[in-house]
Amino acid sequence: MPQTQPSDFSLCVYCGSRMGAQPAFAAAATQVGQWIGSHGWQMVYGGGKVGLMGIAADATLAAGGTVFGVIPQNLLDKEVGHPGLTELRVVGTMHERKTLMFERADAFVALAGGIGTFEELFEIWTWYQLGVHSKPFGLLNTNGYYDPLIAMLDRMVSEGFLSPAVRALLLVGTDAAELLQRLHAAASVKI
Ligand code: AMP
To answer: Model pTM greater than 0.90?
Structure first.
């Protein structure tokens, strides 16, 4: 893993609060955390210790990165608030959580996950469409997990519900390092 100078780059990671059925999902979350940590970046995420969330946070910390977590009080037990983070902010509501995660991040990446992960990615995307921000966001498609979603997005375009320009905003990749580099480059242009 190449070492570079620490930067102020802050990447928000959306991913499952479960591990998923394939070991490849945890392996990808580990790769993402290792990349963030070894490049001196900061990971921003939902603050939990469970599932892929915990895997990515632990890998970031182990590789020397900083991790900023934001968790609502009522999820502290369910998602097991991570005690070892650089900073764990406990907030009152889901909306406060998402707002703070959004504010602290320069870019966003969704790994494999469930409806919470979908919700977070799509909200960031719709906020871009509405002109709320211009931060880049991407989707890590591990083992084809998101192939049906990508097909649905293309169908939205062909059926006239999504513009090709907005469709193209979502950076999709199968390789963690390659996708994170693209997000970093896109954020650098916009900062
Ligand atoms: P999941 O992908 O369903 O395992 O959820 C991943 C993360 O998304 C978990 O930390 C959930 O608490 C979080 N999440 C679920 N729904 C929401 C929501 N409406 N706003 C913010 N985070 C959410």
So the answer is: yes
